[in-house]
Specification:
alpha+beta; 5-stranded antiparallel beta sheet; disordered C terminus
Amino acid sequence: MSLHHQLAHHAPPSALPPPLPAALDLLVDRLNASSGHSSSAAAAPPPVRAILIGTNEGSPLHRSFGTATSIGGGGGHGLSEEILSSVESIWSTLPSNAPPHVMAAAQAADAAASAAAGMTGTISTNPRTGEIVNDAQPPHPLLTPLGLGDEVRVVTVFYDSVTLLHVHLSPLVVTILATPSANIGSVRNIALPLLKELLQPARKAILLARRRALIGGGDGMSVSSGGAAIGPGGAALSNTAAMEEAFAAGFRAGSFPRNGMVGSAGISPEYYQR
């Protein structure tokens, strides 16, 4: 068995619904092209090695290595599974820098406020910027007292042999693994707006699933026999809403790792013991 297939066999399955995985693979290709890498140069490793997506509490959701190393593509990313797992479960929690009990309290407060306002099924966004208004993310304990804002948005870390770019889109953290030859300026200019747009439905779905789990109520949605998401009044949902529901359904069913995440069973005891 090739190295790629060994690593793919042990890698966690993607928790993102179609067509997000394919779109993220194409994004890796575009970032590599912006750094002057040609897909025909098979011998040279690409400047952007991977995009890892998980929660800011350390739960991995998806890995993208580009279309050349997609499953069955015949290529291999050659990255250490141990390193990838560490980035997903430990390093991804650094932008948030909030202890588990503080995170849980912020999520509980958001659920209570939403229930009181009758907005358990709605995530408010800024009409001008499209930003999620309340992502239940507690203020950063170091930045806020210094008047530097409430959240870490982007962190770029340079090492001798690798460059890491953490993009905090609460409750998600996207980590871009790149080599020193990558054009980081181009990667930021291309990746940041596209990631924000691509992952907005997933972010909303996680926030809604957490909120409903804490409140303990249903969401009034179902899936028809044809696979279309159906709203409370029986009307078919839009493509974006259907994607949100597909993601939330997987979350409620326990398909995703719960390393600190609030799922359909509430907050596990291990959440407070970490």
